[in-house]
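Allow me, if you will, to draw on your knowledge of protein folds for a short while. The matter concerns a single protein, recorded as an amino acid sequence and a row of backbone structure tokens. Could you please explain, in whatever detail you think fit, how the structure tokens follow from the sequence? I remain grateful for any guidance, and I place the record below:

…
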Amino acid sequence: GKKQFIDHRSDPREAAFEIERGDLTIHDGRLWHRVEVSPNFGEKSRRRVMYVPIITGKFKPKSSTSKTPFYHRFAKVVNK
């Protein structure tokens, strides 16, 4: 199986979405997802993101001094 947040290889089981300019997409970030590198550059590759938290436990607000999640720090070591 694939390792979440670390393995960015393509997978024959994955489904791709071809999002057009002006489209609205909503996904649950807790699900595994792989973001392939866009073939576009500059304005053409630009997207806007709106983050809507789903609270599943005690509220833990983040700030500019919050630590980076472990899995992101771990990926830097593994992907060298």
Notes: The chain is about 10% helix and 0% strand.
